[in-house]
Write a structure and sequence with these properties.
Number of strands: 2
Largest sheet: 2 strands, antiparallel
Number of helices: 4
Strand order of the largest sheet: 1-2
Radius of gyration: 35 Å
Structural class: mainly alpha
Length: about 80
Amino acid sequence: MWASHRLGITADMATRTKEQEAPAPEAKRSFQFPSAVTTLVIVTVLVWIAALFIPSGVYKETPEGTPIPGSYHQFPPR
């Protein structure tokens, strides 16, 4: 008892537990990155929407299968 009194420790300080001394928990972050499935669905929908605006067409090809530069032509819209 005398040792704790010399160190300036009161009876109240000696009986505290670790739970009482733990700092308050931090506030939860408001943004969480979506799951992998959600990300794949979002990317799929964005690609589908982009395909509606990108015109379809084709290049003329050489017998080896490589495209001929400047030979691109669009398909007529349906």
